[in-house]
Every structure is written in structure tokens, then in C-alpha cells.
Amino acid sequence: MARRRRAALLASTALGLATVLVAAGSARAQDATWRTNPPRNIYDYGADWSTGNVPTGTAYFGTSAVTALTFQSSTSVGGWTFNAGASNYSFVNDTSLQLTFNGAGIVIIGGSASITNRGNLQFFNTGTAGSATIANDGGQLFFNDNSTAGGASIANTGIGIVHFNNASTAGSATITNDNVLYFHNISTAGNATITNNGGIAFDYFTTAGSATITNNGSISFHDSSTAGNAAITNNGGIVFDYSSTASYATINTNGSVLFTDTSTGGSAVLTNSGTVRFDATSTPGNAQLINSGPSAVITFNSTGPNGDGRLTAGSIAGSGRFDLGGAELTVGGNNLSTMVTGVLSGDGSATGTSLIKTGTGTLTLAGANTVSGGVTLASGTLALANNQALGTAVLTTLGGTVAYRDGLNIGNMVTIRGDTSFDVASGTATQSGVIGGSFGLNKTGTGTLALTGTSSYTGATVVNGGTLSVNGSIASSSGLSINSGATLVGTGAVPTTIVAGGGTLAPGNSIGTLTVNGNLTFGAGSTYAVEVSPTAADLTNVTGTASLTGATVQVTPLPGSFRSRSFTILNATGGLGGTTFAGLTGVNSFGSGVRNPHLTYDANNVYLVLDPATLQIPAGLGANQTNVASAINRVVGSGGSPPAGFDVLLNIGAAQLPNALNQISGQAGATTTQVGFNATNQFMAALDPSGNTGAGHSSSGGPSLSYAAPTPQDPKLRDAYAAVRGFDKPSDAFAARWSVWASGYGGSSTTSGSGTSTTSSTAGTLIGADYRMSPDTRLGFALGGANYSFALSGGLGGGRADVFQAGVYGRHSFGAGYLSGVLAYGWQDVTSDRNLTVVGLDHLTANFKANAVNARGEAGWRFTPWPAIGFGVFPYAALQVTSLMLPSYGERASAGSSLFALSYASQTTTNLRSEVGARVEHAVWLSETLLTLRGRLAWAHDSNTDRPVTATFQSLPGASFVVNGTRPAADSALVSAGIETKWLSGFSVAGTFEGEFSDTTRSYAGKGTLRYAW
Predict the structure, then answer these.
(1) For the Autotransporter domain, which residue ranges apply (predicted)?
(2) Is 22 exposed, middle or buried (0-12, 13-18, 19+ CB in 10 A)?
(3) What whole-number distance in Å separates Cα of residue 909 and Cα of residue 948?
(4) Can you give the residue ranges of every domain in the chain?
(5) C-alpha span between 34 and 29 (Å, rounded)
(6) What is the residue-wise DSSP string for 605-639?
(7) CA distances, 859 to each of 683, 708, 877, 914 (Å)
(8) What whole-number distance in Å separates Cα of residue 696 and Cα of residue 810?
């Protein structure tokens, strides 16, 4: 229909042109000027002109009183010239009339000219519409030959039609078209500004030139017409058919654009917010195809110029959708770098491939594409910015670069058929799809590319930058090179590998094992990077040989508490060939739990060895603290390794270490010796027949009351004494042979020494009996029970014991002198307790049986400076030997851990005490009662004040050390004060307070005794 209409129109146009040309040729051109005051306003009325004739050459217009002109008949003129100062003229060319310009056309120097055309208005030759205003109101407006619309303003309304024929041009005119605008033959839209609300047609060899066109209707490019360099805003529809082309136009379309027949997009820039479609055998050519907006669609429904489904486009970019259908689209020929954020769809059914990237630019696929046909990278860069960038397609590379964005995981298969670089600029991207092909892989960029599939490509692998992480397998590759500045990591399998100087091999991802199927060679200056946790280390297993010369091992400890152990960090089945690494770095970052990280080798393995650390013993520690730390260090130094819990001693600060060592030293086990001595001494004091004790004196008066018998009394004095007191004469004291007694005692002691202090308390009872064998000799025995408890300062523990004791004693007087002695045995059921807070809260306890034996001998002499008042002074000297025997025993944990539980070796501690002092006594008769006051002041010296035991950590055999109990002073002062009351009935009671004082010890004790003699 359109073709028939166009043919008819051309025929009528040609006929009109022929008529005009014939008429023009039969007349002689004449010029004339429009009068200032013409009689009429009719253009073709001769009297209105200066010559009296209607001009056929040039019509001049100046100032006139009549400026609105009409025509009575068709008119032909060479041109109109509006002189300077001319009025503003208007012309109406009515229906059926024809106005023809066959010369220069319209020239406006002054004033203005507006033409309303309802008939036929034509420009020929090189004529121009100048700057006229033309309202083509339903008429026909023709620009023929080489004529031009100049700078005219043309409004085509109604059923009007505007024609540009032959080589005519729209010039720089401003054209508003509401109906039809034709460009025929080789005409051009020039630099015109065209607003199209109707239809525009370009045919034959016409061009849109450099026009600016806003299309709200339709534009058709037919035949070999071209959009030229026009800037077209399309809000309607544009059709390119036959062999037309969009050429270099810039087309922004919000409507539709259709390419059909053999038309092409040329090198246009086509920005689409609507729909663009390629049908028949059309092609995008080298055009830039840009989708703008989510609803924009470009459809490739063409079979291509060769009918084989292959299409080309300079580039594609933007959002929306690119529907490739079954076509194969090659892009990138314009070498631009573009990004597609929209969706690529297509199955590539024509050739098996949907998209081919060529050129030197970068095509970035950032959308979630659904393309299923193959994607081929021929050259340039294909950047993947979405996990679905390739849809389900297989990516084939013939060269160029595949670039991955950080965080991607591409699951598509890749086939390498040409030298290809795989680039990650920064971050980490994963290629989980299998890589195949006969060419190699070149890793570039500073980021990390992770290969997780089992690949089958056979070319060489080169890591030229960043990191290649192999967690799958690339063992099929012909070889792997890690160049300077590059790193290989992973837990997968790789082929024969060469690490160049400056390159790094780092097996594992964190901790893991890498397998080299072949040989491994480190170059001088290369690095073997290994991460180590407290329980495992990175490892490389090499199926062939490994050459280590020149490489450095870089160790990175992971967070945790490290202990002594050996890690295998490299194994080579074919051996190391006697090579070793050049050095080891990172050795100072394992913490305080280990020391001396170093490498060792055998024929096939490289080991990282961490020796156990020793405790750093600060200055100023006590003996126990030093002994226990030294014991641990001795075990470590001899190759032992303490249990993991001991690491806390290495990791705590220097300020906390002394307290921790105090706690684990087990001083409570050594303190039992001194506390046991204290308990034994109190029992011995209760048996001392020379003191104010249950074994000390008989209850009868007489010669044996005192420490030694007094000087025999004068019978007269004795009788007088009895007479004064009203008593009968005393009987012989030997008449009372037996006595029984019971005593209770208790006391407390505080001893400071060895960096700690011990507080203990003892309470006991005993019963005894003695027999006077002669006036001067008495023997007796006693049995007793007691208990004691003790506690160390600083929360270092304590204990308690139940005690059974037995002893015999005797005394013999000779004149003013005396001898006394005691033998005793004690059995102690001891329980020790201590709480440790070194690792959590541990409660350690032990129970054992200790034995004590004692012997004491004393000799003294009585002086009676005032016999009449019963006052005596008794200097004396004594020796006492005590042995306390501890068995071997061990602690157990009643709560928490037994990590620091100790086993104690058996220990016998013997002390010889010597005493030198004086006792005093004053006896007073009160009615039938004898009241005696006694006191003592003495110096005591202990030959052995050491209280050591040997302890061993149960969890660390060999860590034995001496722990010292609280050590008393060797010299001390003994004081006592007592009172005894005796009745003639044979009963007596006595009480004593005793104290022992030195620069380390404060002891207080009290005893009470009830005796009956008969």
C-alpha cells in the first residue's frame, strides 16, 4: 500500500514539475518592486508593481501600506527579496494555485515573510526558503533539485505534505510535521530541527543528515536511506527496511525501533527505553545498543546478513532485557568498555553459541542472565559481576581476560582454547565450575581466584599475581609456576610445581593439606608459608621429589595455647635430595608455652619442632617457689613435656607467678612435721615429772614434795611447826605409794618462716598412774588422745590430725639433786587439705599416718635460800630428742583437677633440744591445804630446725623438689607459771601456763591436772 501511494505521489510530482518547467522556459524573467501604496493586495495584479507588470525574475519588497497579499492565479518567480526596512509581509497561496520559486528563492534582509500554503508551493534549482515562515495548511510543499528549506520555520498541518526531492535539503529549518514529510532521491534533512507528529519517510539514497528529530509519530527509512548523523528522539515508531542503515545517528527511543529486510544499525548509538527489534536478515552492525530502564527490550530475531543466525553489534550495555533467541551475537567490535546489568537470554540454537566477545574493550555482565547457548571470549575482557552472569552457558575462551568480581562463585564450565588470563583485581572469587581445554590458565590481579572443581585442562598454569587457591584439582595441567609476588594456596591437587624467587607456596586454607602430583622445586628467595594451630599444621604432600634450597619457611601461629610438639609440614615420597630450607621466620609468635621453634629433616619429611618452654624464674623468689619452678624446668630440659595445664604457669604475668608457685609447692605437706613436733612436745610436757604436771609431784607432804628432797629437818623444828599449826606430827611420806591423775591441755602456736606463717592449735587429754618405789624414786605411765589443726597463711592449705600417745616417766632424788626422764610414742592420723586456683578451683587432700618417738632426760639441783618460808630455786639442764616419721603418700583431688597433685616421699626428721634454765617454787600451808607456786625460765636450743619433705608432681614424673615447712628459730625462751593445791585427803589440783618465744615463734599452752594419791 505504502509503495503504491509513494509511486503515485512521485508520478504526480513529476508531471507538475514538467508543466512548470515548460511554462518557465516560455517567459522572459522581469524584476519589479511592490509599491508603497498599491491599489490592490493581489500579488499577480500588475498595477501593484513598480513596472506595472507582475515580476517573473526577482520581486522586491520594501515599506508598503499593503502587506497581506493573495494570489488570483498560479505564479512563478525567480525569488523574493525583502529589503532593509521592509514591512512584515504575509502571503496566502490558496487551493488549486501553485506558487513556484525557480531562482534564488526567498531572501529576507529586513522585515519578515510568512506564507500560508493551501495549494502547491515549490522551490527549484538552488532556491531557498530563507528565513520565511511557512504554514503548509493542507497543501503540497516541494523542495526540488538543489533547493533548501534554509532557516525557514515550516509547520505542516492538516493533510499537507512536505517533499524534499532530488538533492534538496531541509537546511537548518525548523519543521513541525503533523502529517507527511518525505525525503526522496538523494535529499537530506540537513541540520534541520524536526518535530514529527505524523509520518516521515526516507527513501532511495536520502539521509537524515545531522538533523535533530523528535519523533512522536513514525519514521521510515527505506531503500538505501540512512539516518546519517542525526540525533533522533523517538517517542513513536521507527522502521529501517530494505538496505537502510542507522549509520552514525544517535537514537534515543522510548517507543519502538524495527530493523527488517537487510537493514543495519550501522555505527549508531541506540539508547532504548522501549523496544528494539531486529528481524529478517537485518543486523545491528557496529552500533552501540544500550538498554535504559527495566522494561527496555532489544530482540534479536534476525537470521543475520548471511542467513546463518550470526549477528554483530558494536557493543551492548545497560539494563532491561537482551533477547538473543537462537541467534549468535558478536559484540565488542567498537572496542568500547560496557556493562550489561540487564538480562541476557537465548539458547544459541543457530550455531550453538549465544554471545561472542571481541575487541579490546571490556564487557561486564552484571545481570542474572538466563542465556543457555555458549559464551565465547575471543579477545578483550569479559568481566563477570554476578554469579549468574553466564546463565547456564559454557564459557569458551580463545584469548583475552576473564575478570571476576570479589565474592563471586561461578559454577559454569570453562573451556580454554587460547591463551587466557583469569583476573581477580581484589578480594576473592571462586570458579567452582570445571575448567577444560588444551590451553593453560594465567592468573593475574592482586585478588584470589579459588578453583574448587576437578579441572581437566592440559596447558600450563602460571600464577603471575595475587593468589590462586586450589581446593579442587588442576593435576591435569602440564605444570604450575608461581612467579614473584604471587601465591598458591589450597587443599587440592596440583601438577609439578616451581616456586620462583619472590613467589609463595602456602598449603591449606587455614589448616590443610596440598598435594603436588609430581615434583616440587623452590627457587632462591621463595617462601613456604605454613599456618600452625596448637593441634595441627599445614602440609604439602609431594608424590615426586622436593628441592628446598634457597626457600624460607614462614610460620604463622593461629590463636591458641601452644605446647611442645612436632609437626610434619612437608612430605616428599621421592625424597628431599639432601636439600634443606634456608631459614625459618615467625618463630617469636608462639607465645610463652614453647621455645626454640626449629626445623628438622629426614629423608622424606620436613618437621617443625616446638620445644617446651621453661619457666622464667624471677629474682627474689622464696626457696619453695624456686625449688618447684626448677623441678619443672629440669624435666623440660631433659626432654620431658609437662601436661597442658602447666602452660598456665608460662602464660600468667610475672606478678602472678610467685603466688601460683606457692600454691603448687604443697607446703602444707611439709608443715605437718613442725605441727607434729608441737603436739609431741605438749604431750612430753604433760609427762615431765619435774614440772607442774600430772606426773610432776605426789600429793603427800614430806620430803619428796619438791624437785629434790630438802635438807633433813631438825625433829624439833618439825614438831614445833606441827605444834604451831595444830597438826599431829607428820607421818612418813613413803606411806603414800600410789597416785592416779588425769590432765587436759591445749595451746596454739604461730611460726613465721620460709616466706609463710603457720598457725596451729592442739588439745588433748591423758590419764596416768605412778608408783613410789622408794622415798626418792617414782615411776609412772600415761595414755592420751589429742587432736591438732593447722593453717598456712596466704590460703596455702592446712590440715588436722587425731593423735594417740603413750609414755613412761620416772624420777629419782638424791640429796638436793634429782634426775628425771620420759619416754613417749605418738601415732598421728593426719589429713591435709589445700585449695588451688591456678587452673580453675582444685581441692587436694591427703591422709597418712605419722609416728613420733621421744626421749627426755633432766638433771637439777635445789637451793633453798629461805628454808623457813619454803622457797626454792632449782637450776636444771635437759636434753630431749624427738623423731617424727612421715610415710610416703599422695594427694587426690576431691574437687577439680589433680593436675598439680603431689606425691610425698617418706621423711624422718630428728631434733635434739637442749634446755638450760631454772625452776622456782614457793610452798605455803593454809589450814589443811598446801599451796605451791611454781615458775620456770629457760633457754632452749634446737639442733635441727629444717622441716623439709620431698614432693613430686604426680602428672609430671621426675619433677621432684624439696618443699620446706615453716621453719622455727633454733633458739627460744621458755617460760611457765603454775599453781598447785594439795589436801591432806590425798587429792590435789594443778594448773600451768607455758610459753615459748623466739623471733619466729609464739606459742602458748595451758594444762590442768587432777591427782589422787594413797
Answers:
(1) 733-1014
(2) exposed
(3) 8
(4) 81-514, 515-613, 664-1013
(5) 16
(6) EEEEEEEEPPP---TT--HHHHHHHHHHHHHHHTT
(7) 20, 10, 6, 12
(8) 10
Q: CB–CB of 99/116 below 8 Å? A: no
Q: What is the pTM of this model?
A: 0.70
Q: How many residues does the chain have?
A: 1014
Please report, rounded to a whole number, the percentage of residues in the chain having pLDDT higher than 90.
Answer: 74
DSSP state of 46: G
Pick the CATH number of 664-1013 from 1.10.10.10, 2.60.40.10, 3.40.109.10, 2.40.128.130: 2.40.128.130
pLDDT band at 690 (very low <50, low <70, confident <90, very high): low
Which H/E stretch holds residue 903? strand 902-904
Dump the DSSP string for 558-590: PSS---SEEEEEEEETT--TT---SEEE-TT-S
Radius of gyration in angstroms for the set of CA atoms belonging to the chain, rounded to a whole number: 62
Q: What is the mean pLDDT of residues 639-661?
A: 81
- What is the DSSP annotation of 858-881? EEEE-EEEEGGGTEEEEEEEEEEE
472-509: pLDDT as tens digits: 999 999 999 999 999 999 999 999 999 999 999 999 98
| Secondary element (H or E) of residue 900 | none
What confidence score (pLDDT) does residue 26 get?
Answer: 38
How far is the C-alpha of 703 from the C-alpha of 774, rounded, in Å? 11
pLDDT for residue 699 is more than 80: no
Confidence band of 698 (pLDDT split at 50, 70, 90): very low
C-alpha cell at 88: 512584515
Position 745 pLDDT exceeds 70 = yes
Cβ pair 665, 774 in contact under 8 A: no
Is the per-residue pLDDT at 719 higher than 50? Answer: no
